[in-house]
From TrEMBL:
This is Allophanate hydrolase. Gene3D superfamilies: 3.30.1360.40, Cyclophilin-like. Keywords: ATP-binding, Hydrolase, Nucleotide-binding. It comes from Gordonia iterans. GO terms for molecular function: ATP binding; hydrolase activity. Transmembrane segments: none annotated. Residues 1-209 form the Carboxyltransferase domain. InterPro entries: CT_C_D, Cyclophilin-like_dom_sf, PxpB. The keyword Nucleotide-binding applies. It comes from the Bacteria.
Length: 221
């Protein structure tokens, strides 16, 4: 792990050198939040991305780098139990009728039925939120079958993006899976769609997904 400067009130933790950067960043973010909730560490937020965590404190307080290091050391030796606890499983029924199922199957050297089975078998974890409100970047979590993970591991983005991907579309690209919260441009491979809204301004909170949550996809049919 590297510590990178991010002003007086924040520090950026870089896990790109770890064997599994996404898992390391997610673990660190959960550990730091747990330490803050326990009153051990004074931070406002720990925001994970693909392989970094931005740790912020309230403006003017100054980031406690030593405290951050101590919390991470405790997490590694198991002293912060909540660090390994997912924030809940969200079941998402999917109608697997995506336009790109055959293209994904061809790239993976398998059948469209195998692609669907692999997508359902992976235990997806929300690594971070971004791109649009409610859009979560899902990565294969611990316990996901290696053969199912491999179907999506080498999948790139589409060569040509679509100008409009319908809301509720379930897609995959670059090792991630996602649910489009609203109609927007997109270059991911479409696997199907769900009727569950992932962004609803009338709900509290409006986003169905949050970093650290586990998502399990099932067949809606």
């Amino acid at each position: 792990m590297r510590e990178l400067p991010a002003g007086d009130d924040a520090v950026l933790l870089d896990f790109s050198g770890e064997a599994d950067p996404a898992a390391a960043a997610a673990h660190a973010a959960r550990a730091l939040r747990a330490a803050a909730e326990a009153g051990i560490l004074d931070i406002a937020e720990a925001v994970p991305t693909a392989f970094t965590v931005l740790v912020e404190t309230s403006p003017g307080r100054g980031i406690d780098r030593l405290g951050v290091r101590r919390a991470l050391r405790s997490a590694r030796i198991g002293d912060v139990a909540p660090a390994d606890v997912e924030s809940g499983e969200i079941v998402v029924p999917v109608t697997y009728d995506g336009e790109d199922l055959d293209a994904v199957a061809e790239r993976a050297g398998t059948s469209r039925e195998a692609v669907i089975a692999a997508h359902r078998a992976v235990r997806w974890r929300v690594q971070f939120m971004g791109f649009a409100p409610g859009f979560g970047y899902l990565v294969p979590g611990p316990g996901s079958p290696p053969d199912a993970r491999s179907v999506f591991a080498a999948l790139s983005r589409r060569e040509q993006s679509r100008p409009a991907v319908p809301a509720g579309s379930v897609a995959a690209a670059a090792g991630y899976s996602a649910i489009y919260p609203r109609t927007s441009p997109g270059g991911w491979f479409l696997l199907g769609h769900t009727d569950i809204p992932v962004w609803n301004l009338k709900a509290d909170p409006p986003a169905l997904l949050s970093a650290g949550a586990t998502v399990r996809f099932t067949c809606a049919d």
